[in-house]
Specification:
The complex is a heterodimer of chains A (160) and B (387). Chain A has 160 residues and is an alpha+beta fold. Chain A is built from five helices and six strands; from the N terminus they run H-H-H-E-H-E-E-H-E-E-E. The chains are: A alpha+beta (160), B alpha/beta (387). Bound molecules: pyridoxal-5'-phosphate.
Chain lengths: 160, 387
């Protein structure tokens, strides 16, 4: 039940509790309680909207940055990760397997701003060995949603 | 020459579909929410589409064997056993058809002709009656009752059986009512039919879309298996309506006759669709489960919504239709649908399009987005509070 609730919210968190309750075939109160519990247990962490900033006049540049670091004795990668994710420009940070260690997403108003952030903040961090910055040119799909696609009913009226 | 006089009488005698006029109307209107179309709003899952594309890239553009690619027939047999506990031989008892639609036509033509009666429990999908008439046989309407949630009851069957009865058509989960039949419902019917020489055509296109318990086929009863033609397909469960592919399983003696008609009428089902269908059966259980889950949520949403605005509605447990009772509005099904369309731009289909006993009901499909459904419920509620 909780998983199904999460699936529903992951797709559209603006449904009301009563709509969700009907979809799941349970009482509204139960939905409210489940959500509260999921929030308290940090399973639901937030409800951000998925936005195609390209279509707005709010210029945003996104860069994906591969970072190689030396892990610190006793702390592994956590310490350096913490130093990095504290920056508000960093919108995403993961520890990776493979050629590099940390995968960082940085957003800024311009390429220059992002480049400066990397040069002045990220690269100089003590345990950072190297960075490799990739700017996003166009987003096709994020969180399961295709950007250039609108739900449109193309079905012909047929007799059946 | 008067061409009309040259036309075949038992074709011209069949009236055109009553729903057509609504479709002509909505083609000229903007902003209509259609709960009128009986097909999935999902696009065929990508892995299935991709297999179709690959098959074209590889140049598989020839006819397949008449009965359908043997690899597909094998997958169909595995699927029927895995999902519905029905065993068939891929070589002799399966035929790949141009949709369940072709299978319906083949099954009726292989069994019934002039002088034979075909029992059609109504309200029902529109093709059975048409195909029966085209075959020269006589359709006999059996009125299903809303108080039985449109399940077939032994008493109702007893009343329409005559010495000429040749075929009984079963179609659960049902279009247009959303009704299902469970094991006990069938047990009664099986008991009654056992010593009678009556064949069964069971259209199970919506089998996967069963929201309570497991889908049961009348062919699951051993004593019925040989005399039942089971029709299933890909259109509804795998969201593959436009591919035009389905299948039919039956005893080899029936199959031989159906194959003849199929051979001469269509040769074989579309080859591209057959390759896609193999992928559908092999690797799409999760995709199907996700779609079923989504339909189920919408089903609850619509049922609750309709009841909330004062429509009487029994709980449909299969397919993707609700079939509310509109009698207390004082309108006929036709008036209701026409006014709802003109005044609130919501399209539902009048129940009498599915047989006379559907009068007083309307069919609404929930195979459309949650946003559309929510808006349609709102508009219908506004309509009801005004009349
Ligand atoms: C009950 C039933 N059977 C058969 C069909 C035919 O489906 P297809 O020919 O697409 O397989 C439909 C389509 O609406 C249906 O509702």
């Amino acid at each position: 039940m909780k998983n199904e609730l999460l699936e529903i919210l992951a797709k559209n968190c603006r449904l009301t509790n009563s709509q969700i309750a009907v979809m799941l075939g349970v009482e509204e109160k139960e939905v409210a309680e489940m959500i509260k519990e999921l929030e308290e247990n940090n399973i639901i962490l937030g409800y951000p909207a998925l936005i195609d900033w390209e279509k707005t006049d709010n210029d945003t540049v996104t860069a994906y940055i591969e970072v190689r670091v030396t892990p610190q004795r006793g702390r592994g990668f956590d310490k350096v990760a913490e130093r990095i994710y504290q920056y508000p420009q960093v919108t995403h940070l993961s520890l990776m397997s493979g050629d590099y260690d940390l995968f960082v997403t940085v957003e800024g108003k311009s390429m220059k701003e992002v480049a400066l952030f990397v040069a002045e903040k990220l690269a100089p961090i003590e345990s950072v060995l190297s960075t490799s910055t990739h700017f996003v040119l166009k987003k096709y799909k994020e969180k399961g949603v295709i950007f250039e696609q609108k739900y449109k009913d193309n079905r012909e009226a047929v007799v059946l | 020459m008067n061409i009309k006089k040259m036309l075949c009488r038992h074709i011209t005698a069949v009236p055109p579909s009553g729903i057509r006029k609504y479709f002509d109307l909505i083609n000229e209107m903007e902003d209509v929410i259609s709960l009128g179309i009986g097909e999935p709003d999902f696009v065929t899952p990508w892995n299935i589409r991709e297999e179709g594309i690959y098959s074209l890239e590889k140049g598989y553009t020839n006819y397949s064997s008449n009965a359908g690619a043997i690899e597909l027939r094998r997958e169909i047999c595995r699927y029927m056993e895995r999902r519905f506990n029905l065993k068939y031989s891929p070589e002799e008892e399966v035929l790949v058809t141009v949709g369940g639609s072709e299978a319906i036509d083949l099954a009726i033509r292989a069994l019934a002709t002039i002088g034979d009666e075909v029992i059609i429990p109504e309200p029902s999908f529109v093709a059975y009656k048409g195909c029966t008439l085209f075959a020269g046989a006589t359709p006999v309407s059996l009125r299903l009752k809303s108080e039985n949630e449109f399940r077939l009851k032994r008493e109702d069957l007893e009343k329409v059986i005559t010495g000429k009865t040749k075929v009984l058509i079963l179609a659960y989960p049902n279009n247009p009512t959303g009704a299902i039949m469970q094991y006990d419902d069938y047990a009664d019917i099986v008991d009654f039919l056992e010593d009678k020489e009556i064949m069964i055509i069971s259209d199970e296109l919506y089998a996967e879309l069963t929201y309570e318990g497991q889908h049961v086929s009348i062919a699951n009863f051993d004593q019925m298996k040989d005399r039942t033609i089971v029709i299933n397909g890909f259109s509804k469960a795998f969201a593959m309506t436009g591919w035009r592919i389905g299948f039919v399983c039956a005893h080899r003696d029936i199959m031989e006759q159906m194959k003849k008609i199929h051979q001469y009428a269509v040769m074989c089902a579309p080859t591209t669709a057959q390759y896609a269908a193999i992928e559908a059966l092999k690797n799409s259980d999760d995709e199907v489960a996700d779609m079923v889950k989504e339909y189920n949520r919408r089903r609850r949403l619509v049922l609750n919504g309709f009841r909330g605005i004062g429509l009487d509605c029994f709980e449909p447990k299969g397919a993707f239709y609700v079939f509310p009772d509109i009698r207390k509005t004082g309108m006929t099904s036709d008036e209701f649908c026409e006014r709802l369309l003109m005044e609130e731009k919501v399209l539902m289909v009048p129940g009498n399009a599915f047989g006379e006993c559907g009068e007083g009901f309307v069919r609404a499909t929930y195979a459309t987005s949650t946003e559309n459904l929510t808006e349609a419920i709102k508009r219908t509620g506004r309509f009801l509070s005004r009349i």
